[in-house]
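// run 5 | inverse folding | seed 20
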């Protein structure tokens, strides 16, 4: 069976996620997977060597929207670790069907990232993306570690609706994003277990972003508990000060 999209074909029955970007670029995931979370949401994530596209679907039947109208969220992380999101000011529409524990469908998205502008995904196609069940947190099975990311910002709990992790240019970028803010951590992808210092520039940087403005770390610490580079799973803790915001009690466990 062949599906056509963006003037490119899905040539066989392997999972696929692809779309035209801003009418001139093309996103085609090299790996795409889906997961039903413990809350019953469907998380679909496609990655390339440099980019990640994530769809978090609260509902999966019929036409589903993104943006102010809806609780569904789509997020795109570019090669620089910057996140474009449909929340809160973007928009989009997807139609999905689930058969034989796979998800297929179409999507169109308009995502924003402040001064970086817009990324518009059109003619998007999902094809036979395998769906896993709710992930069991089993420390003896790295493939079964559930993604998590949390922190406090000026004592207020920060629980992102979307998380992303990707390696680019030798750096690992970890992102947690809520409807109006995000936290991004950037550091060398081969960083081993240990304590490291955050700064405003250099190898270890934390950034809190709110109201389309970046607030980089001026000081802080990153505690890498483990970094399993073979299975691409990292676990750690963090805190940093930006001068305007205090980010504390940060914790993450992410697959990248």
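// decoded
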């Amino acid at each position: 069976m062949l599906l056509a999209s963006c003037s490119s074909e899905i040539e066989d029955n392997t999972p696929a996620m692809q779309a035209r970007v801003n009418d001139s670029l093309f996103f085609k995931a090299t790996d795409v997977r889906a997961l039903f979370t413990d809350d019953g949401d469907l998380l679909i994530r496609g990655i390339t060597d440099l980019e990640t596209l994530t769809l978090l679907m609260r509902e999966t039947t019929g036409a589903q929207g993104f943006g102010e109208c809806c609780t569904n969220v789509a997020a795109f992380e570019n090669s620089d670790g910057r996140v474009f999101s449909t929340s809160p000011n973007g928009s989009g529409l997807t139609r999905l069907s689930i058969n034989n524990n796979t998800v297929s469908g179409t999507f169109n998205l308009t995502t924003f990232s402040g001064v970086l502008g817009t990324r518009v995904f059109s003619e998007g196609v999902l094809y036979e993306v395998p769906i896993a069940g709710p992930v069991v947190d089993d420390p003896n099975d790295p493939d079964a570690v559930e993604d998590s990311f949390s922190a406090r910002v000026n004592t207020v709990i920060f629980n992102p609706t979307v998380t992303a992790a990707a390696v680019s240019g030798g750096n690992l970028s970890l992102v947690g994003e809520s409807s109006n803010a995000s936290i991004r951590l950037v550091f060398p992808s081969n960083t081993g277990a240990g304590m490291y210092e955050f700064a405003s520039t250099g190898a270890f940087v934390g950034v809190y972003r709110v109201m389309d403005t970046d607030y980089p770390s001026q000081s802080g610490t990153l505690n890498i508990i483990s970094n399993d580079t073979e299975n691409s799973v990292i676990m750690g803790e963090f805190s940093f000060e930006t001068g305007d915001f205090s980010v504390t009690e940060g914790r993450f466990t992410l697959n990248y």
